[in-house]
Design goal:
Helix content: 25-40%
Radius of gyration: 17 Å
Number of strands: 12
Structural class: alpha/beta
Shape: globular
Strand order of the largest sheet: 6-5-4-7-8-12-11
Number of helices: 8
Order of helices and strands: EEEHHHEHEHHEEHEEEHEE
Distance between the termini: 37 Å
Length: 256
Amino acid sequence: MADIIHEDKSAASFGNKPIDSQINQTDALKYWASISPTVSGLMGGYPQISRIDLQGSANFLAKLRKQATGSPANNIPRGPLGLGVDCGAGIGRVTHGFLARVCRQVDIVEPVDKFVDEIEKGESMRELRENGRIGQFFRCGLEGWEPTPAGYDLIWNQWCLGHLTDEQLTMYLTRCRSALTADGWVVVKENMSTDEENQDVFDDIDSSVTRTDHSFRRLFKQAGFNIIRTELQTGFPKGLGLYPVRMYALRPTKVT
């Protein structure tokens, strides 16, 4: 999970090297291993925005499902999706508060052991575990995850893709493309760079890059995806210094 707080970061390039060349996954893992496995810890000390974030995600998916089925605005498609996956799951905040409500089962991808332990053994996730709502656990980073082909109705990525270089992100999304069911989506929910020169910015605290909308669109296209829907998260309190957060729903580009 990348930092959700907007601070002054270094922008655009590192000497003559691209900004994403500064990403170091070992440094990122050390940082997150030092963070408390709590909602407050993973939300940068602002747990009060979690409910707003989860509601924004639920609203976005509801609109996406209506759009896909051509349903009237007041007719939300009923029934849960099949298998979803929470990528960069942390302690399972998104799974517990959102994904398990819209998917029959949710797989977990998360490289930080103590975060996975909270999902596997923690009290807050007990009911979901006992009811079979939590599927497989993958203790690895997204750069090393090999998803099951044609397995997922929803691949949810939130506050984690900043830890991948551009090349790693393109390769990861390419693997996700073949991991979707025929009607599945990849959703990306990430911070947006507010750099005055519209450049990506590097955070040396957690070794991540905050990308611009343009950068994301370029990488989605390179990985063979179309943007089906996109919108900004709303409702976060002003004055906290938070980055803007944008959601993208992706489907593979059709080959004609």
